[in-house]
């Protein structure tokens, strides 16, 4: 039995650094024995099928293969189709009413509790807001991520120290849900 997964690579193909061409990413995934491989955008989103049911082991194998092929470390998160659908379904913001650039999901490698962000006072960032989910954080930034003061605050080391975290806008989340369903 195979499971469909999405691999979320952190920090590649940004400003010309950590270049991972998508055809080569597909090759790496093929060499790891995965099937049904597709990539989305240039920012490190891949969908594949595997007989493994261990997301962490799949991520670790992909990280090793990328380091061997490209000579630099790339943090990876692997999430199955059911998890991605649950993240979309649990969105606390009215996703259907918003532009994709206004809503973002930061995926974490493990659960995160509210204590980590307790120093952030919601009223200081309005109309921007965030909510925690299952190994993720939803961010509503009406003016987009590039202008978000809350995104900057959430990314400070005291909030993300010791975590692997990577963000996707809502359009990408929705596309990954669609790709992992098909």
Structure description:
With 182 residues, the chain is α+β, with helices and mostly antiparallel strands. The protein has 2 domains: 3-83, Alpha-Beta Plaits (2-Layer Sandwich); 89-170, 2-Layer Sandwich (Alpha-Beta Plaits). It is built from 6 helices and 8 strands; from the N terminus they run E-H-E-E-H-E-H-E-E-E-H-H-E-H. The protein has helices at residues 22-31, 55-70, 81-89, 149-154, 157-160, 170-181, and strands spanning 3-9, 35-40, 45-50, 76-80, 103-108, 129-133, 136-140, 165-169. Strands 2-3-1-4 form a 4-stranded antiparallel sheet, with helices on both faces. A hairpin with a 4-residue loop joins strand 2 and strand 3 (45-50). Helix 3 crosses helix 6 (170-181). The longest helix has 16 residues, at 55-70. The mean pLDDT is 95.
Give a concise summary:
The protein is of the alpha+beta class and 182 residues long. It is 31% helix and 25% strand.
By CATH, the architecture of the largest domain is named: 2-Layer Sandwich
Helix content: 25-40%
CATH class of the largest domain: Alpha Beta
Secondary structural class? alpha+beta
Number of domains: 2
Strand order of the largest sheet: 2-3-1-4
- Main β-sheet description: 4 strands, antiparallel
Averaged pLDDT: 95
Series of secondary-structure elements, N-terminal to C-terminal: EHEEHEHEEEHHEH
Categorize the overall geometry.
globular
What is the strand content?
15-25%
User: Residue ranges: pLDDT <50 for 5 or more in a row?
Assistant: none
Report the total helices: 6
CATH topology-level fold name of the largest domain: Alpha-Beta Plaits
Radius of gyration: 16 Å
Number of strands: 8
First-last Cα distance: 16 Å
Pfam families: DUF1697
Organism: Streptomyces griseus subsp. griseus (strain JCM 4626 / CBS 651.72 / NBRC 13350 / KCC S-0626 / ISP 5235)
Protein name: DUF1697 domain-containing protein
């Amino acid at each position: 039995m195979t499971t469909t997964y999405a691999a979320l690579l952190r920090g590649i193909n940004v400003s010309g650094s950590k270049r991972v061409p998508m055809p080569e990413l597909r090759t790496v995934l093929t060499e790891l024995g995965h099937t049904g491989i597709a990539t989305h955008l240039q920012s490190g989103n891949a969908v594949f099928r595997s007989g493994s049911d261990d997301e962490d082991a799949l991520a670790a194998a992909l990280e090793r293969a990328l380091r061997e092929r490209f000579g630099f470390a790339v943090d990876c998160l692997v999430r199955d189709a059911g998890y991605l659908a649950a993240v979309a379904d649990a969105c606390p913001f009215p996703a259907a009413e918003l532009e994709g650039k206004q809503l973002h999901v930061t995926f974490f490698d493990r659960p995160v509790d509210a204590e980590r962000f307790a120093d952030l006072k919601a009223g200081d960032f309005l109309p921007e807001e965030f909510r925690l989910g299952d190994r993720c954080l939803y961010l509503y930034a009406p003016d987009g991520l590039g202008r978000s003061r809350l995104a900057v605050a959430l990314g400070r080391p005291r909030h993300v120290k010791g975590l692997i975290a990577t963000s996707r806008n809502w359009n990408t989340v929705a596309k990954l849900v669609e790709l992992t369903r098909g």
